[in-house]
């Protein structure tokens, strides 16, 4: 893949660059940099060969072949430059086959995944990554519980990574992932995290305008994702097959250990881009939430761990508030938008959905056409933030630019967990308390086998433990 003369040049250039390298800012930019000085990088003896040139074929493996994994692999294969998908991994054969068929149908020329490199099982990630060379790419699109396990191995193998949000659900995983993020920077690995708002050209333009003072100093941020029950967040009783662990994985939005629940999985995008607009992370949160309609229309009880309503008030160090409202209840007003308010005006950040355009700025606090200052437009060919995030990652990989979104991804995932835990416990909490919370939701996740017991067990009625605000305060659900 990399001829040795290329490596020497890249390495020399790289060493020269590191002396002025203040890698990535935590929340400010589309590309994260983490302070990665000579010393940190020198700690790794001999820099890894992680910089494929423009004409080198980059090999990719997909770990977690569901909806997003298939989409991420497709985005990868559509980046400029030669790419090959060479292995696929899942714990369900039907999921892997469906993903394989779809990718094969649309990208046959970039697929090289013979039967012997389609791995089923919890240990498949190792077999797939073992096939790669340093500088190739591993995609992690399983539920979040497995992120730190897969990331640990990728760093060991000196692989570049794209991993989906959220990255953690609990404090122990957050602390572990922050350490891994540092290691990945020290090894000069390029890491993309699926917080695609940061790669929306609309939001990048809005961010710049807000930094330039177009709407004054930010004093309030608001995100709303309110619709009916969605994805696998609402589950009726385990039907007895597949095994309970595999069933929980299949319905991962229902279980806090697997996904952080609907709060983390659904609301992280608004939390992410609103923190980005503010260039800061909130320091505390207090929150409300409840389980109002936890049954199907025919009266069958839902047994999952989610509230169906959340309202979280975050506070930044300067007193600015950020509200995140989430609701999964049919028949209520649907709102799926985000806003930023400043001392001189306001902005629509996400016009619909997680980060859909156009973004707009207005004089004053009313989003009325007569007050509109600006409306975003994306440059031709850059309208899709999912494709942009891959084009940006590959540009960094092929041109050896600093690019590591892991730390920011963990921080935003921790902010998201903070709001969820504040709602679930009914306690005002700080970011530091969330980060240092000792409750680990899926201990031993690195040793799971198909027959392992699930991290949460149902009671005699088939119901899983649910949050009890004001009663259970030091963890999110009773042990
Ligand atoms: N950025 C976005 O807009 C966006 C959109 C959708 C999903 N996502 C994220 O992507 C991830 C996956 O979501 P999805 O909707 O594709 O879910 P999914 O259930 O469709 O896909 C997940 C796949 O991972 C497999 N899997 C689970 N554990 C595994 C393991 N240990 N090893 C190998 N395979 C395993 C599952 O069987 C499944 O096929 C989640 O973290 C989700 O939050 C992000």
Quick rundown:
With 479 residues, the protein is of the alpha/beta class. The protein has 14 helices and 15 strands.
Topology:
Elements: H1 4-18, H2 38-42, E1 58-63, H3 67-77, E2 83-90, H4 93-107, E3 118-120, H5 124-130, E4 137-140, H6 147-156, E5 160-163, H7 171-186, E6 191-193, H8 201-211, E7 218-227, H9 244-250, H10 256-259, H11 261-278, E8 284-290, E9 309-315, E10 321-328, E11 335-342, E12 345-348, E13 360-363, E14 372-375, H12 385-399, H13 406-425, E15 429-430, H14 431-435
Parallel strand pairs: 1-2, 1-4, 2-3, 4-5, 5-6, 7-10
Antiparallel strand pairs: 7-11, 8-9, 8-15, 9-10, 11-12, 12-13, 13-14
The structure holds nicotinamide-adenine-dinucleotide.
CATH architecture of the largest domain: 3-Layer(aba) Sandwich
> Counting H and I runs of at least 4 residues, what is the number of helices?
14
SSE order? HHEHEHEHEHEHEHEHHHEEEEEEEHHEH
Fraction of residues in β-strands: 15-25%
Strand order of the largest sheet: 14-13-12-11-7-10-9-8-15
Report what the structure shows.
The protein has helices at 4-18, 38-42, 67-77, 93-107, 124-130, 147-156, 171-186, 201-211, 244-250, 256-259, 261-278, 385-399, 406-425, 431-435; strands at residues 58-63, 83-90, 118-120, 137-140, 160-163, 191-193, 218-227, 284-290, 309-315, 321-328, 335-342, 345-348, 360-363, 372-375, 429-430. The chain folds into two domains: 11-197 and 385-405, NAD(P)-binding Rossmann-like Domain (Rossmann fold), CATH 3.40.50; 202-379 and 413-441, Dihydrodipicolinate Reductase, domain 2 (2-Layer Sandwich), CATH 3.30.360. A hairpin with an 8-residue loop joins strand 13 and strand 14. Strands 14-13-12-11-7-10-9-8-15 form a nine-stranded mixed beta sheet. The chain is built from 14 helices and 15 strands. It starts with a helix and ends in a 44-residue tail after the last helix. By secondary structure, the protein is of the alpha/beta class. Mean pLDDT is 91; it is low at 1-46. Bound molecules: nicotinamide-adenine-dinucleotide.
């Amino acid at each position: 893949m990399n001829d040795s003369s290329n490596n020497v040049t890249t390495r020399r250039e790289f060493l020269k660059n590191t002396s002025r390298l203040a890698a990535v800012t935590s929340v400010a930019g589309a590309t994260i940099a983490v302070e990665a000085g000579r010393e940190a990088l020198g700690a790794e003896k001999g820099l890894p060969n992680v910089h494929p040139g423009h004409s080198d074929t980059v090999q990719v493996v997909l770990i977690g072949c569901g909806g997003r994994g298939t989409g991420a692999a497709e985005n990868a294969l559509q980046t400029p430059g030669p790419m090959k998908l060479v292995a696929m991994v899942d714990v369900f054969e039907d999921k892997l086959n469906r993903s394989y068929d779809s990718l094969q149908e649309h990208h046959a020329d970039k697929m090289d995944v013979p039967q012997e490199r389609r791995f089923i099982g919890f240990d498949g990630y190792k077999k797939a990554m073992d096939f790669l060379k340093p500088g190739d790419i591993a995609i992690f699109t399983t539920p979040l519980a497995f992120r730190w396990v897969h990331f640990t191995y990728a760093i060991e193998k000196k692989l570049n990574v794209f991993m989906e949000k959220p990255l953690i659900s609990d404090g122990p995983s957050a602390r572990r992932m922050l350490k891994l993020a540092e290691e990945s920077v020290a090894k000069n690995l390029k890491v993309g995290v699926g917080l695609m708002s940061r790669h929306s050209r609309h939001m990048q333009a809005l961010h710049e305008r807000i930094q330039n003072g177009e709407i004054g100093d930010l004093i309030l941020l608001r995100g709303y994702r309110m619709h009916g029950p969605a994805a696998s967040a609402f589950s009726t009783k385990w039907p007895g097959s597949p095994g309970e662990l595999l069933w929980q994985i299949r319905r991962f939005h229902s279980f806090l250990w697997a996904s952080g629940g609907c709060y983390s999985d659904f609301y992280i995008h608004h939390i992410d881009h609103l923190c980005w607009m503010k260039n800061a992370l909130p320091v505390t949160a207090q929150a409300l939430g409840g389980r109002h309609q936890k049954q199907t229309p025919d009266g069958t009880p839902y047994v999952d761990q989610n509230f169906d309503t959340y309202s979280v008030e975050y506070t930044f160090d300067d007193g600015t508030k950020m509200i995140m409202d989430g609701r999964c209840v049919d028949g209520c007003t649907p709102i799926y938008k985000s806003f930023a308010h400043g001392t001189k005006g306001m902005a629509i950040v996400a016009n619909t959905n997680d980060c859909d355009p156009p973004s707009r700025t207005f004089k004053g606090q009313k989003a009325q056409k007569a007050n509109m200052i600006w409306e975003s437009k994306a440059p031709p060919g850059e309208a899709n933030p999912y494709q942009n995030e891959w084009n940006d990652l590959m540009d960094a990989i092929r041109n050896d630019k600093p690019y590591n979104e892991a730390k920011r991804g963990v921080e935003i995932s921790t902010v998201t967990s903070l709001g969820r835990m504040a709602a679930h416990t009914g306690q005002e909490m700080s970011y530091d308390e969330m980060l240092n919370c000792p409750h680990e939701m899926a201990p031993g996740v690195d040793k799971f086998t198909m027959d392992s017991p699930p991290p949460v067990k149902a009671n005699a009625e088939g119901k899983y433990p649910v949050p009890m605000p004001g009663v259970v305060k030091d963890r999110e659900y009773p042990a």
